[in-house]
Design brief:
Pfam families: GcrA. This is GcrA cell cycle regulator. It comes from Celeribacter neptunius. It is a single chain. The protein is mainly α and about 190 residues long. It is built from five helices and two strands, in the order ααααββα. Among the domains are: about 40 residues; about 60 residues, no CATH class. Strands 1-2 form a two-stranded antiparallel ribbon. A hairpin with a 6-residue loop joins strand 1 and strand 2. The C terminus is likely disordered. It binds a DNA duplex (11 and 10 nucleotides) through helix 3.
DNA sequence: CCCTGATTCGC
DNA sequence: GCGAATCAGG
């Protein structure tokens, strides 16, 4: 993929809005977050409006990439809890706070036209989860241990919120059913060719 | 551990 | 110019 005018524009726009490089890369498609960051730099729009993130001193002595005796570890399976099923219309992506000024409520129509689902959750797994949620122990956050399923259920904004609490799978943060929905999808992850 | 952006440098 | 590899902070 090449940096066409439109792609660059979208890049600028999203970067300006405080989107992360990885998100921009995902949105554009065909590029990695590194490519995005590289482009951002080349475009000269490095830092965003002084967001209180991390300040780079700029000139830091490094120099050492000459040789790379780095014993790199193998990538793992990232996998994060996938979005819950349908019910809450508030499942939106707001990764960064951005400027306090632009806090406009979502319009009325369809602010999100082309939303290709990041990942699909098998209907089967969902059904399973629904069943499990009925048997959930409804434990609070303080009751979570290494052995309890940490799958959140309900709306954190209300009292209808608890954790599954069923016995989690060894080495996993969730019970079997929730491991299913949490780790199932996640198909593509950029290659790390060497 | 995951994620961020930043930098370097071979292409 | 491009972006993977790498670095460095959170």
């Amino acid at each position: 993929m090449s940096w066409t005018d439109e792609r660059v524009e979208l890049l600028k726009k999203m970067w300006g809005e405080g989107q992360s490089a990885s998100q921009i890369a995902k949105e554009l498609g065909g590029v990695t977050r590194n490519a995005v960051i590289g482009k951002v730099h080349r475009l000269g729009l490095s830092n965003r409006a002084g967001s209180g993130a991390s300040a780079k001193p700029a000139a830091a002595p490094k120099a050492k990439p000459a040789a790379k005796p780095k014993a790199e570890a193998k990538p793992k399976a990232p996998a994060q809890p996938a979005a819950k099923a349908a019910e809450e219309p508030a499942a939106e992506a707001a990764p960064k706070p951005m400027s306090p000024a632009r806090r406009a409520i979502i319009p009325a129509g369809q602010p999100l036209p082309p939303q290709p689902s990041t990942n699909e959750i098998p209907a089967e797994a969902l059904a399973k989860v629904n069943e499990v949620e009925k048997k959930a122990k409804k434990i609070s956050v303080m009751e979570l241990t290494e052995k309890t399923c940490k799958w959140p259920i309900g709306d954190p904004a209300t009292d209808d919120f608890w954790f599954c609490g069923l016995p989690s799978q060894p080495g996993k943060p969730y019970c079997e059913a929730h491991v299913g929905v949490a780790f199932q999808p996640m198909s593509s992850r950029r290659d790390r060719r060497r």
